[in-house]
Amino acid sequence: MIKNKKWLIVLALYLLAISYIVFFSSTYGRISGAATKFSTINLVPFKTVSRYINGVKVVGLISAMKNILGNIVIFIPLVPILKLVLNRRITFIPAFLIGALVSFAIETIQYKMQLGVFDIDDIILNVIGVIIGVFIQGKKKSKKKRKKNISKTKNTKTRKYKEKSQ
Predict the structure, then answer these.
(1) What is the 3-state secondary structure (H, E, C) of 1-30?
(2) What pLDDT, on a 0 to 100 scale, did the predictor assign at position 137?
(3) pLDDT digits (tens, 9 = 90+) for 94-153
(4) How far is CA 133 from CA 5, 64, 79, 85, 116, in A?
């Protein structure tokens, strides 16, 4: 159930930004023009990643980094935003499934609209980003817990000290 409507707007804007980057942005590899419509499928894991790594001299380091790191980084915020929308922690399995389904949907739309390759590597990299998001979400929670525990400890010590001095 949606608990926080302002974060729902943030989630919608985030998904719109992903849609723009994947489907329309020429800055991130999208080539405009009807003559460039194409669609292929790559179901071999790490085929595209290895092409970028092995062919970095051909495609260029920036292009390789945009593809590999971009596919990871773009999905990192998904879990923390979902946590804020739902007002509860998203565990690993649901996060994994949500990330895989969103990425699969993007790749399918990209393929059906002839905007590029349905690439299993993109799905893998996107899910890695989601997993990083799960860990970031966990880190934020553990920092809050530590602060709360530290303040509890200080309050307990202060009370004990006051009791002894009376």
Answers:
(1) CCCCHHHHHHHHHHHHHHHHHHHCCCCCCC
(2) 86
(3) 999 999 999 999 999 989 988 888 999 999 999 999 999 999 987 765 555 555 556 555
(4) 21, 22, 5, 15, 26
- Count of domains forming the chain: 1
Name 30's Cβ contacts closer than 8 Å, sequence gap at least 6: 22, 23, 24, 115, 116
Domain that holds residue 156: 5-165
Instruction: Enumerate residues 6+ apart whose C-beta is below 8 A from 84.
Output: 4, 7, 10
